[in-house]
Amino acid sequence: MRQQITIAGAFTQADRDTPFHHLPFEMPAGAKRLEVTYHFDKLEEEEAAKLEEQLRRDTPYGPGGQNVMDIGVFDVRGTDELTGGFRGWSGGARTGFQISPSAATPGYIRGPLQPGEWNILLGCPTLRSERARYWVDIDIEVEPNARVDETVLFEPTDYNSAGRPERSGPRRWYRGDFHSHTVHSDGLNSIDEYAIEAARVGLDFLAITDHNTTSHFEEIATRNGDFLLIPGEEVTTAWGHANVWGLDAWVDFRCTDDAGMQRIIDFVHERGGLFSPNHPKPGYPWEFGLTGFRVTETWQGPWRLGNDLSREFWERRLREGERAVAVGGSDCHSIAPAKVLHPWGLGTPCTWVSVQGTLDETGVLDAVRAGHTFVSEDPTGPFLEFTAECDGASYITGDAIEAKSGAPVTFTLDYRGPSEKKLRLFRDGELWQEVVADREEQSFEFELALDAPGYVRAEVAGFRGRPERGEVTHALTNPIYLRPA
């Protein structure tokens, strides 16, 4: 037996500040399978192409010239902010989805189809016409006399760091990528394909951060293989994107203002997770006027793709006295044998983390929390380790030197990479020291009196590819903070 429902409506320009429609429908008792498809008005191809060409001149990596509508679904637990019964989201990557107790379309969470009110969630992040109609077709397979379904929803592991024992053992640098997308959102590859490729290019771990969903968490938790995959979510809004790692819950994305985004950030931090604004540069900028996040994606893809602006976004936080940890992520959406959507892949850039003891998710995220990271253009480097000594104590990036005012500090910069590159130290955002590496492996020392609060960080820069386009950054470290007593 089947039940079929069609819901129609429209988005208009007046919906810009409330770009989500919740469309209720009734899930009958005995439901065995839910299938949803949808379609909506689009601009004529020629009109959309002309508009896209015009838009690309101003924001080459931003939204295109066509109407876009996204789709997701909530179950009987409701649609309340932060705590609603989320069952999946595919954005605009698919024209529909299916859910049953034992399986679901990637992006959606398998499990019982509980009777009661469910809600289709439609979003309209890009509306190029004055009005766009939509039609949602719902098809429910029902077995009226079926016994009660006893399947349960997958519950992610709690990665909250509170109450964990101290880590022990030697430190070691590991290489990873904190931003990637698979078939669970708008990527083109499976999780297994990514794991194999990440290991091949020299990574030790990879974060899978599919858009606005946690459907990939179960596959990561149950897959065979020893390559470390870290489940995450890219919270994707019309006013900015952000990665979340280390959380055992879906993170809401239905916010339209600073107050709503602040509630999301607080939700993540209260549960021990990490929140990181992504690619804060033209194209998909971070438009929320907020501070207090603990991580920022300071580098995404090849350096010339606006990463100088992402670096400035991060450095501005540092100059204003905040402690924000820089990480990098490729935002990879595909690799061979799928169609390659970008000319770079996993590990571009590469984030190096100094992990104490065993390499696992806890160790990686603890290293990020502490700022024990640096970023290089790919897994081959350059390698750039920045350390300090003061009053007999040793420090690494992310640490704060707390000693008597005037105490001498010795900074050490250990470099491995191409010769003739410029190694620079920045103090409070201003260039303080610069040397040229005349060998492929070299160490430098610099002296400083601990005379004022602030920070010091390091970079490697030089020419690459087309020198007439100027220098690029090859690697950058997190700061060592200065805290004179």
What does this structure look like?
This protein is mostly beta strands and 485 residues long. The protein is built from six helices and 27 strands. The chain folds into three domains: 2-142, Sandwich (Jelly Rolls), CATH 2.60.120.380; 155-379, TIM Barrel; 382-485, Immunoglobulin-like (Sandwich). It has helices spanning 45-58, 191-200, 215-222, 258-270, 307-319, 361-370; strands at 2-12, 20-27, 31-40, 68-74, 86-91, 96-99, 116-126, 131-142, 171-177, 205-211, 228-237, 240-245, 274-277, 295-300, 325-329, 350-356, 373-376, 383-390, 393-396, 400-403, 408-416, 421-427, 430-437, 441-449, 454-462, 472-477, 480-484. Strands 9, 10, 11, 12, 13, 16, 17, 20, 22, 23, 25, 26 and 27 form a 13-stranded mixed sheet that branches. The longest helix is centred in the first third of the chain and has 14 residues, at 45-58. The chain is globular, with a radius of gyration of 24 Å. The N and C termini lie far apart (75 Å).
